[in-house]
Design brief:
Layout lengths: L1 E7 L4 E7 L10 E12 L2 E6 L6 E4 L4 H14 L7 E6 L10 E2 L2 H9 L8 H14 L5 E5 L9 H4 L5 H5 L9 H15 L7 E7 L3 E7 L2 E5 L21 H8 L5 H10 L2 H6 L4 H9 L3 H25 L4 E5 H6 L1 H8 L11 H5 L19 E4 L4 H14 L7 E7 L2 E3 L2 H8 L7 E4 L6 E10 L4 E9 L6 E3 L2 H7 L5 E2 L10 E5 L2 E5 L2 E4 L2 E5 H7 L6 E6 L6 E11 L5 E5 H6 L6 E5 L1 H7 L1
Parallel strand pairs: 1-6, 6-8, 9-12, 12-13, 14-27, 15-18, 19-23, 20-23, 24-26
Antiparallel strand pairs: 1-2, 2-3, 3-4, 4-5, 7-8, 9-10, 10-11, 14-28, 15-19, 16-17, 17-18, 17-21, 21-22, 24-27, 25-26, 25-28
The protein binds adenosine-5'-diphosphate, acetylphosphate and magnesium ion (MG).
Adenosine-5'-diphosphate binds next to helix 10 and helix 12.
């Protein structure tokens, strides 16, 4: 499979072509061509092409759009043919897009609607989509969003303390550069020989746009950009954090309009506002030559980044490694040094020689901390394009391309009764009263309730689900098992041989029975959905819950296919609590799981 990737940033356009050999996995993915344009100006831009990074030439393009327009010809001249899909970086995907998404007309519409929240980025990203669709109208186009990785951030990190009706209108923090933060976090874990799920990391992506991200135990838990890519660190042309009180002052005292203020914060602030140049190379050169403005800019830049390191170490309750990436993070030893200076108190100190000697190749993620210090410090190239290609390839390999989203129902403790049990509990020949229909057709919850009685305690008011069954089955959670004092096994529904005994108590008597289980998590799936996604009865899959506060993947979820099932996943209350679920949630069958089962 051959995938072309466009990564349009605020100051540069990068593109790459990636191959996965037939029958190979994502790890075998190889880059076969790449190019980048930056330093756009009236006289053109810098251009690097081919796998050999070194050569910089001048190209006549004065802006990102004209450079993007030139890419198809460049690929043709380089003999690159046979592209099967195009992946695009899209900066803002809002709260909806948790993974690579096929660019349908509807999805494009949603991305357009988010443009006011990323005015430097989404238009450039969409331009690349438009050009690619013109040139390759038959190829599938995919989006990979900067925001997706951060959708695991907890509510306390993403909620602005503003009036309720503003929050209801969608005001919240998102975070960007997620593809980069995710990639470098994985690289750092590999380089340290540790599992990502055991590490607390801070990633500093310092490019033209810049952001810090706290990655705790494999998930982004906070990042410095907010609802827009304006919040946080000092950037090339963006201010980063300012007092929102500035707006009123600028408007009332200085007579500026909203557009002027916003434009200045996006385009004329940051390094550019402080020094006249948005390019750190220029700023460093000027500072070295004695320019006081440039020196102050560098100090502000480093100080702001250092403050975020302190904040995120506190947010995570510790720090195992700090990662530098992005044009500045990768290439400026002096900036890395300034950012880290003064952090010895938290076990973070650089080794001068290692910091100066950093050489980044495709497989290197050098460590630059002083020997014997507690916090590892790594420098690594980011690889947003590679990550985008991987995510697109994985999504394409998932049957139907898109992950199947399934509603999740939380089963509280309940019993299924036999006629024998009903007779004993409610009186001979008693008929239960169906009260509420369940989503599985023909199933209902009865008005009647029973008590569960165990050696340690009782649980009252337990629901009875109909219709009646041949054998009585009692489904509880592990926590209920402690309350009752009985250790119940995890079983599929109906697999009751050898299960423990429990006493049920009803208004007319008691009933002792085996059949006490913790229901194995499962998905009811109708035949059409199963066929569409390539699953059969008895398969097991992984289901990822990214929308919940504690985002979690459930492994070994059993698929139960019946003709007219309502497709829905059932978990118990312990599982729901572990995933931080309240209210309606959807889970996502992860591509990996689907691949394994077919
Ligand atoms: N050798 C270097 N020293 C200092 N800064 C550098 C160096 N090389 C690149 N940079 C800076 O990196 C920034 C661009 O980062 P990059 O990640 O390429 O941008 P983008 O966010 O557009 O992808 C610019 O400020 C540039 O000056
Ligand atoms: C979101 C963002 O700031 O991206 P970039 O670094 O490409 O400007
Ligand atoms: Mg960038």
């Amino acid at each position: 499979m051959r995938i072309l990737v466009f990564n349009a940033g605020s100051s540069s356009l990068k593109f790459g072509v990636y191959d996965i050999p037939r029958g190979g996995g994502l790890v075998q993915m190889q880059q076969c061509f790449k190019g980048s344009f930056d330093r756009f100006g009236a006289g053109g831009c810098d251009y690097r092409a081919g796998l050999d990074e070194g050569t910089v030439t001048r190209a006549p393009y004065t802006d990102l759009a004209s450079a993007t327009q030139a890419v198809p010809d460049m690929l043709a001249r380089a003999g690159i043919t046979g592209i099967e899909a195009v992946g695009h970086r899209i900066a803002h995907g809002g709260a909806e897009f948790t993974a690579a998404t096929a660019l349908s007309a509807e999805v494009l519409e949603k991305i357009h609607a988010l443009t006011p929240l990323a005015p430097l980025h989404n238009p450039a990203n969409l331009k690349a989509v438009e050009i690619a669709r013109d040139v390759w109208p038959d190829l599938p186009q995919w989006a990979v969003f900067d925001t997706s990785f951060h959708l695991t951030n907890p509510a306390r990190a993403v909620t602005y303390a503003v009036p309720q009706h503003w929050r209801d209108a969608g005001l919240r923090r998102f975070g960007f550069h997620g593809t980069s933060h995710k990639y470098v976090a994985q690289r750092a874990a590999e380089a340290l020989g540790r599992e990502l799920r055991d590490l607390r990391l801070i990633s500093l992506h310092l490019g033209n746009g810049a952001s810090a991200c706290a990655v705790a135990l494999g998930e982004s838990i906070d990042s410095s950009m907010g609802m827009t890519p304006l919040e946080g660190l000092v950037m090339g042309t963006r201010s980063g954090d300012v007092d929102p009180g500035l707006f009123g002052y600028l408007s009332r005292q200085m007579g500026l309009g909203i557009t002027e203020i916003e434009d200045a914060l996006y385009r004329d602030s940051g390094l550019k506002g402080l020094t006249g140049s948005s390019d750190m190379r220029d700023v460093e050169d000027r500072a070295a030559a004695g320019d006081a403005d440039a020196q102050l800019a560098i100090n502000i830049y480093a100080y702001r980044a250092r403050k975020y390191i302190g904040a995120y170490a506190a947010a995570m309750g510790g720090l195992d490694a700090l990662i530098f990436t992005g044009g500045i993070g990768e290439n400026s030893p002096s900036m890395r040094r300034r950012i880290c200076d003064g952090l010895e108190f938290m076990g973070l100190k650089l080794d001068h020689d290692r910091n100066m000697a950093v050489e980044l190749g495709a497989h290197a993620a050098p460590q630059i901390q002083a020997y014997g210090t507690r916090v590892n410090v790594l420098v690594t190239e980011t690889a947003e394009q590679l990550m985008i290609a991987r995510e697109v390839a994985q999504a394409i390999r998932t049957p139907q391309g898109e992950a199947l989203r399934i509603p999740i129902a939380v089963s509280a403790r309940h019993v299924h009764l036999s006629q024998c049990a009903v007779d004993a509990l409610f009186g001979p020949g008693y008929e239960l009263t169906p009260d509420k229909p369940l989503r599985q057709k023909g199933h209902w919850a009865a008005r009647e309730r029973v008590v569960l009685h165990g050696p340690k305690g009782e649980i009252a008011n337990v629901a009875i689900l109909g219709p009646l069954r041949d054998r009585t089955q009692v489904e509880i959670s592990r926590t209920d098992g402690f309350a009752l004092g009985i250790d119940a096994p995890v079983r599929q529904s109906g697999a009751l041989d050898g299960t423990p005994h429990i006493r049920l108590i009803g208004p007319a008597g008691q009933y002792d029975t085996n059949g006490l289980i913790i229901a194995a998590r499962h998905i009811h799936m109708n035949s059409a959905d199963a066929q569409q996604i390539g699953l059969s009865d008895g398969d097991t899959v992984n289901v990822t819950l990214t929308t919940s506060g504690r985002g979690l993947t459930f492994g070994g979820v059993l698929i139960r296919v019946t003709d007219n099932a309502f497709t829905e996943m059932h978990i118990d209350t312990d599982e729901a609590n572990a995933a931080g679920i309240s209210g309606a949630v959807e889970g996502e069958l992860s591509g990996e799981a689907v691949l394994r089962s077919t």
